[in-house]
Amino acid sequence: MVIIGRMTEKDVKEVAEVEKQCFALPWSEKSFYDEMTNKLAVYFTAKTDGKCVGYAGFWNVSGEGGITNVAVLPPYRRQGIASMLIEEMIREGKAQSLALLTLEVRKSNRAAQDLYKKYGFDIIGERKRYYSDNGEDAFIMTKFLNK
Ligand SMILES: CC(C)(COP(=O)(O)OP(=O)(O)OC[C@H]1O[C@@H](n2cnc3c(N)ncnc32)[C@H](O)[C@@H]1OP(=O)(O)O)[C@@H](O)C(=O)NCCC(=O)NCCS
After folding, report:
1. Of the residues 53, 72, 88, which should be mutated to test ligand 1's pocket, given the most ligand atoms within 8 Å of the CB?
2. Burial track 19-29 (b if 16+ CB lie within 10 A, e otherwise)
3. CATH architecture of the domain with residue range 2-144
4. What does residue 42 show for φ and ψ, rounded to 5 degrees?
5. What ranges do the domains of the chain cover?
6. Among 20, 81, 103, 115, which is best to mutate for testing ligand 1, by the most ligand atoms less than 8 A from CB?
7. CA atoms of 95 and 92, how far apart (whole Å)
8. pLDDT 10s per residue in the chain (147 long)?
């Protein structure tokens, strides 16, 4: 069974490990500790048998939710875990009266784009050379929560 919960300091080490296994430019463990005292930040973990297998979060900036990351460990993918994390962020975003949730995603990352499309995010623009490792462009995908 997968349980979605709010991320706490106790989860940081495991979340940083998930991050390392999921991204070419992973955030450091310290940046996750910093996020735990960031009043704008809201993070969730996905746990199975007490082990953290995924996480996601957003920043509430002036009533708009900027999703920082969504990640699931490779062996646990295609089981609906990212979907559960997105559903939780949409629920929490509505509870915080956010106007929208928005994010950047690599143009090559079809899996993530399909995930976000499934939840009503639309491509509303792009950022050229957004990713510093390979100069890849990002799509900006946004979901309005008041519709
Ligand atoms: C993108 C990611 C978070 C998806 O996690 P997941 O738990 O496997 O996603 P889900 O099982 O909830 O999938 C939901 C939907 O997303 C889409 N999707 C997920 N993985 C996909 C893939 N490999 N190929 C195509 N579509 C995919 C599908 O529409 C899927 O619905 P379906 O299973 O009914 O077809 C995961 O692959 C990951 O961590 N990738 C590396 C990190 C990353 O790229 N994060 C996004 C940064 S913007």
Report:
1. 72
2. beebeeebbee
3. 3-Layer(aba) Sandwich (3.40)
4. -130, 115
5. 2-144
6. 115
7. 5
8. 999 999 999 999 999 999 999 998 899 999 999 999 999 999 999 999 999 999 999 999 999 999 999 999 999 999 999 999 999 999 999 999 999 999 999 999 999 999 999 999 999 999 999 999 999 999 999 999 986
